[in-house]
Write a structure and sequence with these properties.
Number of strands: 10
Radius of gyration: 21 Å
Structural class: alpha/beta
Low-confidence stretches: 207-217
Mean pLDDT: 84
């Protein structure tokens, strides 16, 4: 007599697979209807990872929101030579593809090979957009990487870029790595060039302008109770998941490499109410981009 439990298990698995396939294809169709028929460079929802439960349309709006932040805080111009450190699947590349003119350029590198493969589609349309995979080791993003961030040299000439930016990069790095990166940022920036960086700053006050958060129940997304010599980590089992620093330490690392604060640090929304996902979604709604979840520092090379 056949084993009915095995037969029913196989039937259940097949139905699950069919359901997943159907929902995936339905998601692809919705992506095309909402945004991809107009902006085919927007990735499919199923290719988007990280951040609050994003879809293709939200991803597109987030990319435009980032450009507005860069324009307001770093005074970027359409003819700038731009470097994206940790470019991911091209969210900011998408925004810059609508902002830069033919005399401007965009370079991006990332530790995740699969992300760079998604970004390659920009190179087919824009000759001034270039992407590189760099196999950097990071326990959160790329645990099997072969290169150390504390020794890595950016693969670009000195004094090449008008604008460099790092979003959710230093929030996953330790001091020796950041010290090396700030040295490299200063090297590749032109004099007077600016850099936009997000941090978790341990001793910065909560932002006051967001009305979507309940001020009566303020509660940070992270506690950063685990203090190390000169930084704080959220999770000892995954130390690079979230790393925080004090503002004076950040200023010291930057000034050592001729990078000076151009505007006061902009506090992020991560110190607001509720759990991690609640604040992520509030950030996306209020910003209107998730970049405002983290603290923002803008520096200029002197």
């Amino acid at each position: 007599m056949p084993d009915l439990s095995k037969i029913f298990t196989k039937i259940w698995i097949k139905r699950k697979i069919r359901r997943i396939y159907f929902l995936t294809r339905l998601s692809d169709v919705m992506d095309w209807i909402t945004i991809r028929r107009k902006e085919p460079l927007v990735p499919l929802t199923r290719d988007i990872w990280g951040g609050p439960a994003l879809n293709s349309l939200a991803f597109y709006k987030w990319s435009l929101g980032d450009i507005e932040l860069f324009k307001n805080l770093a005074k970027i111009k359409p003819n700038y030579q731009v470097l994206d450190v940790g470019c991911g699947i091209g969210r900011c590349a998408l925004g810059f593809s609508r902002f830069l003119d033919n005399s401007g350029s965009y370079d991006g590198f990332d530790a995740r090979f699969q992300d760079i493969e998604i970004c390659k589609k920009f190179e087919h349309r824009y000759t001034n957009f270039k992407f590189q995979h760099v196999d950097l080791k990071n326990s959160f993003y790329n645990p099997n990487g072969k290169l150390n961030s504390s020794e890595f040299s950016f693969p670009y000439d000195s004094n090449k870029f008008d604008f460099v930016f790092l979003i959710s990069v230093f929030t996953h790095m330790f001091p020796d790595d950041i010290k090396n990166y700030t040295k490299e940022i200063s090297r590749v920036l032109k004099k007077g060039g600016r850099c936009f960086i997000t941090f978790f700053i341990k001793d910065i006050d909560i932002i006051e302008e967001d009305n979507t958060l309940n001020k009566k129940s303020l509660k940070p997304a992270f506690s950063f109770k685990n203090k190390r010599e000169n930084h704080y980590i959220e999770d000892t089992s995954k130390p690079e998941f979230a790393v925080a620093y004090k503002l004076e330490y950040i200023k010291e690392m930057l000034s050592t490499n001729n990078l000076t604060l151009k505007v006061p640090p902009l506090p992020g929304l991560w110190k607001g109410k509720g759990d991690y996902m609640t604040i992520l979604k509030s950030s996306l709604k209020a910003a209107p981009n998730f970049t405002r979840f983290q603290d923002i520092v803008v520096v200029e090379k002197i």
